[in-house]
Amino acid sequence: MDVRQPLPLLGGLSPAQFMRLHWHKKPLLVRQAIAGFTPPVGRSALLQMAGQEEVESRLIQQRDGRWLLRHGPLPRRSIPSLNTPQWTVLVQGVDLHNDAVHALLQRFAFVPQARLDDLMISYASDGGGVGPHFDSYDVFLLQAQGRRRWRIGRQKNPRLLPDLPVKILAQFEPEEEYLLEPGDMLYLPPGWAHDGVAEGECMTYSIGFRSPDSAGLAHEVLLRMADAAADETDAPLYRDPKQSAVATPGAIPAQLQDFARNAVQQILADPQALECALGEALTEPKPNVWFEPSQGPALMERVELDRRTRMMYDARHIFINGESWQAEGQDAQLMQRLADTRALSPQEVASASDQALELLAAWCDAGWAHARSAKAE
Ligand code: SIN
Ligand code: CO
To answer: How do residues 254-275 score in pLDDT, each as one tens digit?
Structure first.
């Protein structure tokens, strides 16, 4: 993607300008971000998805002034009738289940894949919404069908109403109000309070991002680094030929503390180990994701990543679905291109080394990628 090219999606800003002026800084309303937008997943497909075990969904309803929450799977009979007002069904990670929705998410690939989370779709009956709240992540709210009135504001007081199943701000002070029509989009930075209320039946697509917190990320990375270190067969054993006899056997020897400290410092001192663990952690598929292995060899002229595959790279490694490979030279460039564009052309496949082709074939067998004939391009 040419990040200096102005995009209707960003109201005529280029991705470079958007990131400089708005990302993490201030909201942006874009009228007709996608003119003539036809939602790839409509109401009945969405409500059907909400009933599936492997799909993450919620039903939020306001009844007699109370907020009710039910987690999915949501059988059709648990969803209120379409003419009952003030309810909404939210389905998370629709990009994992639908190619067209995945393609829509890729329009936002001017943000690193490591930060892109998922595309959530909400369907609401008249008056439905999730109430005034704020999220800790950036979000693009794309109006897909019907109309939604958004009220937004910088939140001074983050206090929530107590004892509710949903996060509702105790004191919401909106500063701006917009009525979004199909194809309109609102970008909100983290922490901006917002309340979107459906006017008639309404569907909103939310493009969400993920921001790891430092403790959680350290936990994941350290676990992986420790696992990798534990696999090393030549790790030195603790030895204590100078240990004297003790009258206090419960006390941990200082020498053993030093041994442990050195062991941990050695693992941390290897920059590659940290980078490798980070890449593996960032590409680990979500727990509800699985791949269907391919049905036998196909003619590998063009290669496309499966919509569920997460693929990234750093200067020395290629990461795909929680696994890593060291790569350099032309093969590394080819795999980096696959990670960036999620596909390789027949010319690119033809230029791959035998080793790279073997890897691509193994990923196709596992269902992580798909071999297509050149005609499908
Ligand atoms: C919605 O689609 O109703 C909720 C989206 C959000 O507030 O983040
Ligand atoms: Co929100």
So the answer is: 999 999 999 999 999 988 899 9
In a domain, 1, yes or no: no
Q: Could you report the per-residue pLDDT of 230-254, keeping only the tens digit for each? A: 888 788 999 999 999 999 999 999 9
Nearest CA to ligand 1 atom 2: 122
Q: 48 in helix, strand or coil?
A: helix
State the distance from the centre of ligand 1 to the C-alpha of 290, rounded, in angstroms.
Answer: 27
Same domain (yes/no): 137, 48: yes
Q: Determine the structural domain holding residue 364 and report its residue range.
A: 302-376
Distance from C-alpha of 127 to C-alpha of 82, rounded to nearest angstrom = 12
Both 162 and 222 in a single domain? no
Instruction: State the total domains in the chain.
Output: 3
Residues 143, 264 within the same domain = no
89 lines ligand 1 (CB under 6 A): no
Beta-bridged to residue 139, according to DSSP, are: 188, 208
Q: Which ligand is nearest to the CA of 144?
A: 1
194 lines ligand 1 (CB under 6 A): yes
* Phi and psi torsions of 149, nearest 5°: -95, 120
Distance (Å, rounded) from C-alpha 19 to C-alpha 108? 11
Residues at Cβ < 5 Å from ligand 2 ion: 135
**Ramachandran class of 296: left when φ > 0, alpha when ψ lies in -120 to 50, beta otherwise:** left
Ligand 1 probe mutation, 147, 166, 201, 204, most atoms within 8 A of CB: 204
Is 297 within the bounds of a domain?
no
Q: Is 312 in the pocket of ligand 1 (CB under 6 A)?
A: no
Q: Is 206 in the pocket of ligand 1 (CB under 6 A)?
A: yes
Q: Which residues on adjacent β-strands are paired with residue 91?
A: 57, 121
Cα 73 to ligand 2 centroid, rounded to whole Å: 21
- Considering the entire predicted model, what is its pTM? 0.93
